[in-house]
Structures are given as C-alpha cells and as structure tokens.
Amino acid sequence: MINVRTLEPGTRVALTDGSTVEIVSNPKDGIWVFARYLSSPRDTSLVGTEEMVFAQDMVEIQTTP
Amino acid sequence: MAIAGKRRYTGGLVDVAAGQISREIFVSDEIYAEELERVFTRAWLFVGHESQIPKPGDYFVSGMGEESVILCRDREDRVHVFLNSCRHRGMKVCRYDEGNTPVFTCPYHGWSYATDGKLVGVPYFREAYHSKLDRSQFGLVEVAQLEIYKGTVWATWDPSAPSFLEYLGEFRRYLDLALDAWDGREGGTEVLGGVQKWLIPCNWKFPAENFSGDSYHNISHRSVDLVGIGPSGSGRRDMRERLIGRRLQICFPDRGHQTGAYVLPNEEPTPPAYQHSPVVSEYFRRCEEQRRERLGAWGRVTGAPGELFPNTALHPRQPRSIAVWHPRGAHRTEVWRWYLVDADAPPEVKDFLRQYYIRYSGPAGLTEQDDMENWNYAHAASRGTIARRHPYSYEQGLGFEVENYEWEGLRIPGTVMDVTDSKSSEHNLRNFYRRWAQFMDANSWDELATWRRRP
C-alpha cells in the first residue's frame, strides 16, 4: 500500500483503472494528491488534465523523481 | 414590535429596573440552549486577527458560540470564515489549531474542500455517485456576514443582522482604543505570540459581566497589587491617570456594549509608565505625546476594560488584549485571549510587553487567576435548589447615569456614570444584561435594531 503523504511532485503512479498520473503537488492530508494524467484507457480526454486523485485509487508507484 | 414591558427575560428573570437578576440565567441548561440560538447565532462575534493568516492558504481554527469555525485566506487572498464541519457526515475538516493548506480534507470519508469553501474532492464521484452529486451545493457552510475592522475579523451567522459598523455604533471609538497604534495612528496592531486558551468551570456571562465594568471586585486583586506586577513594579498596571483624571463607566443601551475609560485634564500630560525599562518607557512617552497631537481632545481619553456584546472583552491599555468567552455548556467557559502590540514597536518593547502580559493575564497570570477563582466558586454556589431562589443584586448607582456627559470641553459618547467619587457602579453590568434579555426575548433583528426606529 502506498503511503500517500510521502509522494513527491514528479512521482508517477498507476491507478486502479489503468491510468497513470504524475504528482503535481501533495497537500499531505493522506487522502488526496493533485496529479496530471499521463494516460487513461478509460477516458483519453483526461490526458494532460490535472485532477485530485484519491488515495484508494493509487495502486503502484512507477517512478520517482 | 418594540422591546418594552415585562417579558420572560426583560423585566422578568432580568429585572434591570429593580437591579435584580435571577441566578437561573447562569445555571439553567434550558436557558443556555436558548441563548446559543438567540444570542450566538444572531450577534457579531470576534473570530481572529488578520495578522494570524497573512498568506494565501493560511488558516486559524476559531469558535463562534459552540461551533468550531475556520478563519482562512483563500488562493485569491480573500478572507473567509467557515463552519468546521464536513457537509457529508459532519466530521471536523480541520483538526489543527493553525497552519497553511491548499485543501481541508475530511478524514472520515475523504470529502475535500478548497480554501474558498468549494467542495473539490469527492471519493468515487464517478463510480459511487455516477457523477450525479451537485458538488456546488455542498461547499463548507460560510458565515452570513464577515467584517475585517482594523485587522480584527468579526462574523455573524445572521444575514439580517446590521452591518458590523452599525452594530458597533458609537462604541467604535472605544474599540479603536484597543486597535489603533499607541500613538493614535489608525490600526497598526498585531497579535503578539500565540492565543492562550483555557477552561473555567463557570457560565460565560460571569467573565463577560466582569469585563463590562466590575471595578467593585478590586479587593480580589489586592494581593497582586501588593506584589506589584505592574510595568513599573507597583500595583497591577501603570495607570496613574486615575489619580488626575475622571474615571468613567460608559455604556450604549441600544447596542449592549460597555467599557470603562479615563479622561485626563486638558493641560496634563499622560503620566509616565513602564519605568522598569528606559527604552520601553521612552517609547510610550513618545507615543502618548504623538497621540495627543494626532487626536486632539479625544487623545485625553484612555481605555479601560470593556465588553463588546456578547462575549468579546477588550483590555485596551495594560495589558492590551482581546478575550473571547466561548460558551461550553451552562457550566463551563473556554477563554481565548489574544495579546496585541504595535506592529512596528521595537523588539525590546514587544519582549517587555510579552513578559508583562503573561505575568498579568491568562491561565498563569496572577490577576486573571484571582478572577477565575471568583467566577468558579460563584457559579458552583449558585447551582443549588435553594441558591437559585435568590436573585443577584445589581443596584449600585441605579438612576445616577448621565446622558451627554462632558468634562473640560470634551463630550463623551454613550450613557455615562462618573465613578471618580462614587468609586463603583453596576451601571455597565445592568446594560450588558439588559441587552442580553432583549436578545433572548426578541424574535428578529427588526426588534433588536431599536436605534432604527428613532425619529
């Protein structure tokens, strides 16, 4: 399980729906991060957009800065 | 409908005309629940100071009545006051005293709010809510009105309440005595150090009454005066103006605010103070001189303890501070005290004042401890079945107050009791309870804003 509070900007994370996001900023509340979509098989229009991503949706750290 | 005649509180439990007030209003849980609704949701309440949230994202968790609120500055630099309660299941969205954050996130189910109060994060919004939840309807609950006055932040839940300046009326000039710089420049104060917070086992109206102008209890502080904790090592404060000026108690019957004040003679300078430190003494001597030059005749007025209705106490002179009496049930009060200094005062002055302030006020302050002991035991001894049958006496000085008071060419706003010779009066205390009773009896601000009905 990922400790969301430790995720630094630039970290790439895989989500439960198969998307990949890159952390933009982290309020360190342990629940949300602000992230940019790098890919999204569910909805390609999300790519490049910035959204709040929920901790429970994050499954794996892919790369760290 | 005019507020007159005998109602449940006005002329009943609060019989100001006779100078008698029932103990029930201090110890009854039923009356306490009623005053949370009728006083604390309608009045303007002190929330904090702008200097506590200088940057976007800064927040300070405060209180309004029993409600926890968040004072914060959003990303666009706008100041807000929000109810600290998630719209989903009510959990506090902020459990820290102060800090900086981009979002307030509820730890229960994860709803998250931006610093402008908008709901920006809902877990499983697409999956569980099928993107149907109207997030715009579930932002943090915001106060109905907010006012920033000379750095202090005030708010009310009541959209029909008058503006803060109208709520103040002419009492504004006395509030300014606490908020303007010592040399009379407008504003210019900042909060010194943190906010002191502590609990007292008494009803919140005991301290509110005390700061309204109870100088009768000075005997309680005799030990502090003997020890000499004042800035010159004598008494509690350096307020030698009391020896040369007029000592007044001033109230505003239609607003419920009241304060003490001293008026110095025309030709007399303000007596020296803070002689334990030459730097500090010289700073205040210069400030007093400039204050007289800047304010003219009004510069002869110096402040004394006061109460802005309902639960904000002012201590404009020594030690300069603002206190809020947060109600925590009929039998408990949580005190929060902010200490104020001139923002541009030299560090030596601020440090000297910090040490004096904590020597005087707060849970460990010698003077405040005397007061707490009185309120604690007065409350406890008023709760019994027999005790409740016997009202308190508020008859001192009844009928001796003066309108349009003037001394040496200076007219003093408000209804005034000159206590220079009489030593003490309960004039201001009666005013506080008169207004409290009006709030308890009135159904709306149409009834409470009595000044609007004057010809």
Query: How many beta-strand elements of chain A?
Result: 5
CATH topology of the largest domain in chain B: Naphthalene 1,2-dioxygenase Alpha Subunit, Chain A, domain 1
Assign the CATH class of the largest domain in chain B.
Answer: Alpha Beta
By CATH, the architecture of the largest domain in chain B is named Alpha-Beta Complex
Radius of gyration of chain B: 23 Å
User: How many discrete domains of chain A?
Assistant: 1
Q: Largest interface, and how many residues on either side? A: A-B, 11 and 11 residues
Main sheet of chain A: which strands, in order across?
A: 4-3-2-1-5
What composes the largest sheet of chain A?
A: 5 strands, antiparallel
Report how far apart the termini of chain A are. Answer: 19 Å
What would you give as the CATH superfamily of the largest domain in chain B?
Answer: Naphthalene 1,2-dioxygenase Alpha Subunit, Chain A, domain 1
Assign a percent range to the helix content of chain A: under 10%
Description of the molecule:
The complex is a heterodimer of chains A (65) and B (455). Chain A has 65 residues and is mainly beta. Chain A has no helices and five strands. Chain A has a single domain (4-63), classed as SH3 type barrels. Chain A has strands at 12-15, 20-25, 32-39, 50-54, 58-63. In chain A, strand 1 (12-15) and strand 2 form a beta hairpin. The model of chain A has no long low-confidence stretch (mean pLDDT 96). Chain B contains twelve helices and 24 strands. Chain B has helices spanning 24-27, 29-40, 164-168, 172-179, 205-213, 222-227, 241-244, 278-295, 347-360, 366-380, 427-441, 445-448, and strands at 14-15, 20-21, 45-49, 58-64, 67-73, 79-83, 98-100, 103-105, 112-114, 119-121, 145-149, 152-156, 189-191, 196-200, 246-252, 257-263, 301-308, 312-315, 321-327, 333-342, 392-393, 406-407, 410-411, 415-418. In chain B, strands 13, 14, 15, 16, 17, 18, 19, 20 and 24 form a nine-stranded antiparallel β-sheet that branches. In chain B, helix 2 crosses helix 11 (427-441) and helix 5 (205-213) crosses helix 11. The radius of gyration of chain B is 23 Å and the shape is globular. Classes of the chains: A mainly beta (65), B alpha+beta (455). Chains A and B meet through loops of A and loops of B.
